[in-house]
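Note to self: keep these together.
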Amino acid sequence: MKLLLTSGGVTNPSIHSALVQLLGKPVDECDALIVPTAQWGHPLCGPASVRSLVAADARSRHFSGLGWGSLGVLELTALPTIGEERWVPWVREADVLLVDGGDATYLNHWMRESGLADLLPSLPDTVWVGVSAGSMVLTPRIGEYFVEWPAAPDDRTLGVVDFSIFPHLDAFPSNTLAHAQRWAADLGGPAYAIDEQTAIMVVDGTVEVVSEGQWTRFDE
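Structure:
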């Protein structure tokens, strides 16, 4: 897949330009599926925040509210009960998957249980746009610092990319660069700390940071 891994969505012209580059056409000509699943695993999320996302209201203007040609919902917890013959065509027909934040280990669980994780290698032209946990789930590990789901066996995630992500840099008192440095020291691999104005674009293994804000790379 073509990946646009963000902390807060498509928040500035540089990230928007990268998105259009990956899509190969304007946003308003694209069919999008929004994945809210990670929200159910995080204690700060719930019915109201999921509604905001799905309704593409003002709070979601940088993500589901970008003006997509069409916008549908792909709830991963439902997929095992309806059969691949129904949901796989929905995914294949989409131009972009918009994968929202929440708890990345919960999202990792349902990516695997639903079968979507197994489908990803067969979607070379599909764009994955992640916000927070929706980006972190593609990394090898998220660090214990970000595990909120009580049933998570550990902090491991899908490992589609070979680096980890510390999102929301300086957006909260507990997400400073000093916190990120301590987090990275425990991972044993490369990592990025990114703020709300930064994205990481990955195409065919090539990694490019797109930013109008602040970011730091931590090497192993």
